[in-house]
Amino acid sequence: MKLKILPTHLREKKRYLAFEAVSQQPLKREDVISILWDTSLHLYGVCGTSKFDLWVLKVWDCPHSDDYIIRGIIRCRRESLDEVRAILPVVTRFNGKKVVFFTIGISGTINSAVKKFIKLKEVDD
Amino acid sequence: MFIDLHVHYYPGITKDAWKMGYQGLVLVKSSEKLSSHSNGPKGPSKDYKNSDIRAKISTFEGVEVRAKNPEDLKRKIQRFRNSTDVLLVHGGDLKINRAAVEDVRVDVLAHPYQGRKDSGFNHILAKKAAENGVAVEINIGYFLRNRNHRRQKILAQFREIMKLKAKYDFSLVITSGARSIYDLRSPRDLMALSSCFGMDKETAFSSLSNVPEAIIEKNQLRHQIISSGVRLLE
User: Fold this and answer.
1) How far apart are CA B185 and CA B17, in angstroms?
2) Are B4 and B20 contacting, i.e. CB atoms less than 8 angstroms apart?
3) What is the C-alpha separation between B194 and B205, in angstroms, rounded?
4) Best of A15, A84, A90, A117 to disrupt the B interface by mutation (most B CBs within 10 Å)?
5) How many Å apart are CA A93 and CA B182, to the nearest integer?
6) Is A105 on the interface with B (CB under 8 A)?
7) pLDDT digits (tens, 9 = 90+) for B92-149
């Protein structure tokens, strides 16, 4: 039997963080998940990370000339938004190659995050 | 308006910085590279001269003075002061740190904690820095270049500086010290990170925007200043 879903006022409030990553190698969603979790565990430890409800929803490839650029959406709890944001600048390397993450924007729903910040067609300019 | 006060030039830096959310950049050159051929930094190179992004992002020039001893530092400050927008001093050595905060011509004391076990900064230096209007740099790039054990040490050094800042109220600047896009970080992300070393949001915001702006503004008026408190008006 499946658990009944919580009523809205008891659910955790979420925030969706649109990010962009530039790297020297192509990144998949699994890579992004492991990068963020490893960094978060380094920075805040197990206890801190457990409070964030950190999850990577989806990533998009953006065609670019020299480096590999991806855009994606991270989910976290509304209360721990600042802590999650602080994880991104700490990322420096993955598998010996350089990576840089930065936030493009923050949104309350996935839909508006995609519409406002991901905007795949404009990536080139 | 977010300004990064300490970046090194590479092709395409203005575009990357604009994407991250900066509106101003100070392109810093080391005094050692400049000393061999010219007196001051050259004008902007052609890469960002003809790009349209230049209209949106303002760039300034800076010199990072590296000196062996306080006398050498004085001589180099004298030499570069008038030809540059922002003058930084490469800190780390105790005597250099002391000489830098005692000089009104210095704008920024860059990483006084570099290569040290302590923060390289104490209450005496803090008082002098507040008196002479020398800003102290929190270099995030230095934090990022180091790994686990060193990183926690560096955060502790930052925290010590924050403690002194609370009492003596000298100005702080947060910079990236970037040499490529992989060192640049978005200013809003840096604000979030700065809570890790006990900086509150308002201080973090002003040390990325208001303080660098004030430094640049002050330097544009510097040639009018005769002595402290006296300004020549046209």
Assistant:
1) 8
2) no
3) 10
4) A90
5) 9
6) no
7) 888 999 999 998 889 999 999 988 888 888 899 999 999 988 999 999 999 998 887 8
The token duo for B17 is 């910085």
Helices B94-101 and B123-132 sit at what angle, rounded to 10 degrees?
30
**Amino acid residing at B201:** K
Token duo for residue B67: 């000196």
Task: Tell me whether residues B181 and A82 touch, CB distance under 8 A.
Answer: no
d(CA A58, CA A36): 14
In the chain, the amino acid numbered B84 is T
List domains and CATH numbers for chain B: 3-231 (3.20.20.140)
- Domains of chain A (ranges; CATH) run 13-119 (3.30.70.3250)
| Angle subtended by helix axes B187-194 and B201-208, to nearest 10 | 140
Q: What is the pTM of this model?
A: 0.85
Q: How many Å apart are CA B1 and CA B91, to the nearest integer?
A: 27
